[in-house]
Amino acid sequence: MAHPTSSAPARVVSGQARPGAGSAPGARLTGLLWIAAGVSAISALLYGYDTGIISGALLQIRRQFHTSSTMEQVIAASILLGAVIGALTGSQLSERWGRRRTILLLSCVFAVGALAASLSPSTWTLSLSRVVLGFAVGGATQTVPMFVAELAPKERRGRLVLTFQVGIGVGIVVATLVGASQFFSWRLSIGLATGPALLMLILMLGLPESPRWLVKHDQQDTARRVLERIRAGGADIESELDGIIDVEEQERRAEKHCKGFSGLRLPWIRPALIVGCGIAVFTQLSGIEMIIYYAPTILTSNGFSTAAALRVSVGLGVTYLVMMFVGLSIVDRIGRRRLTLTMIPGAAAALGVLGTLWVTGNHGRNTIPFIIACLIVFMFFNAGGLQLMGWLTGSEIYPLPVRGAGTSTQAASLWSTNLLITLTLLTIINGIGVGPTMWLYAAFNVAAWVFVFLRMPELTGRSLEQIECQLRSGHFRPRDFKKLPDQPPAPARAPTRSLPGT
Question: Using CA atoms, how far apart are residues 341 and 347, in angstroms rounded to an integer?
Fold first, then answer.
């Protein structure tokens, strides 16, 4: 099908990479892209550390402030409330100010929030400070992966965006080790996050704005200069820029009002929103929060010593981190969809076996090694599969005019689900027991597999413009991505069908 205005997007599509492709000249990583990956990893480390450090810190906070269990839940959950607010606000900031300035602001908020929390004179000021921290966490999860995806060449986009996921793993492991040691005071433990936040700010000062945001704001010459800076020698800069400009021009002609959150209501964008938010929700419903945050509580209440439970928690964090590195190295070769469908069944089976052990009463001392093995197996398959997709898909599937709003909505869906689980999980366990709760989350994994199989297309090796053309043409199911045409479908037709009268 011929393209109506230019051949640039055809070149983008015809140059699509199969899973594993990456030998094109422009696919090599430049110094600026490595710095962008570093910013992504640091922001994610702060996410993992700031959300995880409170678990160990609460033991000391309880002794100092004589807190009730209710107040402890408020302290723990306050960062999640801030994350929801930050995710929703980050969209408007990144669209209005640009990705770069928004991330600079978030770096400052990370530093201020950590410092304020470490100096808090009361539990209420501590909670409010963690809301501020949460704002930075939520804003970063919405903005940073999108920024990196818009800078990255399509052949390396998966690996670069997944540095964010690796950073989360590092943050969780560090927070677990610091909390388990009880060596640092809670104030120092929380305040340590100020250092990485300042480093993130310094690194971000050397990075350019997203070329796609620049094109959207009529700064094509600046966008060209940015592409020349961030692409390796031999890259086809003009072809890439022409593709970005062409898609932006089509969007302006077809959807003059397709901007921000209002644009998410358009019928042709809805499939992307369903996939993005569905993946975000299932990353949390898969049981990862139950295992990371509540494994020590569950284990100690069922016969494990505190020391043994903390060691298991550290082992789970290390497994999470290792699988983030594994996923980082293979996702662009194996493919996002294939990897996810392969790994989810292992996580579901591990939870099913754990549930059976508790329901049948076989969770005593004799089965402790087997229980620990099941927990590690769950983390292996969950972290190496579904968890990788939570931030990666959101950075890829939304059209440029609604990319900020889409990633914002997806991040808010993830954090809202996280908040709901945090506030209800122990209540569910007390109500139906540990075993049935494990079965419930195993069922959520089965539902996640069905969802990915039916709805999530294979995005590996596709340019952002090519993904958008598929979405506009109404061909966004997995079967539609198996064999794409040599040229992108004419997107001008899709809005005519979806939006009569435009």
Answer: 11
Which pLDDT does position 494 carry in this prediction? 39
Question: Which amino acid would we find at residue 256?
Answer: K
What integer pLDDT is reported at residue 163 of this predicted model?
Answer: 82
What is the model's pTM?
0.71
Angle at 197 between CA 195 and CA 202, to 5 degrees: 95
Of 437, 430, 298, the C-alpha closest to 371 is: 298
Domain with CATH 1.20.1250.20 in the chain: 17-239, 260-489
**How is residue 237 written in tokens?**
């800069």
Angle ∠(488,493,499) on CA atoms, nearest 5: 135
Q: Decide if 409 contacts 273 (C-beta within 8 A).
A: yes
Place of tokens 């996702």: 331
How many CB atoms within 10 Å of residue 298?
Answer: 23
SS3 298: helix
Q: What is the CATH number of domain 17-239?
A: 1.20.1250.20
The answer for residues whose C-beta is within 8 angstroms of residue 91's C-beta and 6 or more apart is 142, 260, 261, 404, 405, 407, 408, 409
Give residue 287's Cα distance to chain centre: 16
Class of domain 260-489: mainly alpha
Which contacts of 237-242 are long-range, i.e. CB under 8 A and separated by 24 or more positions? 239/8, 239/11, 239/12, 239/15, 240/12, 240/26, 241/211, 241/215, 242/6, 242/8, 242/9, 242/11
**What does the pLDDT read at residue 257?**
56
Single-letter amino acid, residue 473 = S
Residue type for position 27: A
The 3-class secondary structure across 368-409, one letter per residue, is: HHHHHHHHHHHHHHHHCCHHHHHHHCCCCCCCHHHHHHHHHH
Say if CB 190 and CB 61 are below 8 A apart.
Answer: no
Counts for the chain of helices (H) and strands (E), in that order? 23, 0
In order of 37, 186, 362, the CA distances from 192 in angstroms are: 22, 10, 42
Blockwise average pLDDT, block size 10, the chain, 502 residues: 35 40 60 92 93 80 82 83 88 88 97 96 94 94 87 80 82 83 86 96 95 91 93 85 83 64 85 93 89 70 71 84 83 87 95 92 78 91 88 79 83 87 80 91 96 90 82 84 52 37 32
Q: Which residues contact 251 (CB under 8 A, 6 or more apart)?
A: 258, 399, 400, 401
Whether the CB-CB separation of 442 and 351 falls below 8 Å is answered with: yes
Question: Which pLDDT score, from 0 to 100, does residue 1 have?
Answer: 36
Closest CA to 99 of 154, 161, 142, 152: 142
